[in-house]
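Hi there,

I know you've been waiting on this one. I reran it after we fixed the sequence typo, so this is the corrected version. Both the input and the resulting structure follow.
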Amino acid sequence: MSQKLLETINYPSDLRELSITDLPIVAKELREFIIDVVATKEGHLGASLGVIELTIALHYCFNTPEDLLVWDVGHQAYGHKILTGRKNIFDTNRQLGGISGFPKRTESSYDTFGVGHSSTSISAALGMAIASKLQGKNKHHIAVIGDASIASGMAFEALNHAGDTNTNLLVILNDNAIGIDPSVGALKDYLTRIKSSRNDIEQHNIFEALNFDYSGPIDGHNFDELLRELERLKTVKGPKFLHVITTKGKGLRQAEENQVKYHAPGKFDKVSGDVLPKAKSNYTKFQDVFGKTVVELARQNKRIVGITPAMLTGSSLKFMLDEFPERTFDVGIAEQHAVTLAAGMVAEGLIPYCNIYSTFLQRAYDQVIHDVALQNLPVIFCLDRAGLVGQDGATHHGAFDIAYLRCIPNLIVFAPRNEIELRNILYTAQLGIQNPIAIRYPRGKGKLENWQLPFQKIEIGKGVVLKEGKDLAILSVGTMANNVTEALNLVKDSSTIAHYDLRFVEPLDQELILSVLNKFDQIITIEDGTVNGGFGSVISEFAHKQKYKGDIHILGIPHEFIHHGTTDELQKQCGIDINSLVSLFENHL
């Protein structure tokens, strides 16, 4: 059996030894390699399959890593990783202790910039290009950005700046008309018009108006077109913009036909391409509890609308879109706009449920403070993927939301311990509360089969007693209450341990906490957020004001970036898994 060409390639220097006629073979083998690994190890699939030819062409034409290549988001960089020294360990992708699912500077010199959140590539590559120019270095700087990412405000800001420089910057638009969900907005419509009139493009387009040397659109799966244009662009001075058309999921029929599902399909049959059936579960994802509940509320209240920045499927606002398309707004990758859009809606009497992943809300922090909280506009923020999210790793963990939100005046911060609590706070929030509220909940399934019970109003700022005791008090917030409950069931004698679910980080149930401080000499707080400035800090600060003399032990995510692994593995690493809690509780008795 003859050796595959891909087996001879460990680094781009090996790739450059091949003839151009070999490259289609490498592309075929690279696709097969990615499909083979992701079929069993899981991960992102469609985006990387769509840029195989572009990836090969870039490393073939440019002298990477001396020439600097920046990938946007990183979902599309699996082929890049395999060609840059990580082929033999690619099966550890996203696994605990393995390579990251995204480009990462500490992992390889070919990963010139860490990318997990979108729309950063042009800014980073421009910064590199300016640095090279100031230091007299002659190198190329390439940013590969998807059309969903280029609609973000940060990408526009970078284009605006870059067009006013004479730096050696090449921006490549990987135009496949889809991010995770189909792309939206006027820019998408504009790009579609350009694609539909390839032979009759207006003399001046938006990118040329920004002083870029524009070329394209070209076929991103045609090596002749790609290599010819990349070689030409290497000789062009100043900022350049190459429009490349690709098909997300290219090479796997199902991934081409169902691009949303095959963005990250889970395990699938590498021969047939069919997603493998998962074990039937009686439990519901928290995102679906949110999505179905909001639809139920929207049927009763015509002022309710839903907003998400490009996460219709991930947030489950797709349910709202199906039933109330005119009241559902996917604004694209634009978290800042989503927040202030919601504020404007509230100002005129609507009730927006603004669903943004916890880690992505960080990108709109100024808007949360100035446009919402300062004006005390009761926007309902629904923060999906709070806490540890697993194999997406450090860029996607919702570790900081409690700490960065609890310090904002007027803002209510709530973390439900289960699906019923999430359902009830979503109901409560639209009854006319006078403040903005942030509701944080985790990725994955809950633990209740029957959660669709009649709505009950939750009293703002009130915690609950889950278990009485006299020697040790456990204070939890959010779904960490479930770990505590299960741990207490395993403790040899838990009769003297009390457990309180505070639910609200802000406003704090001061009456409940005062009773705990007066009764217990030992308190343990537990959260799935950072321990620095988080829920435990809230309790500690309040106890200090009350001159509490007892011991407070704060548990949560330590003051460091937690990398990738399963959620169970990462909880164990942080000491907040069930077995770690059992040991801790028994040592405190």
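Quick highlight: Residues 330 and 577 are 36 Å apart (CA to CA).

Best,
R. S.
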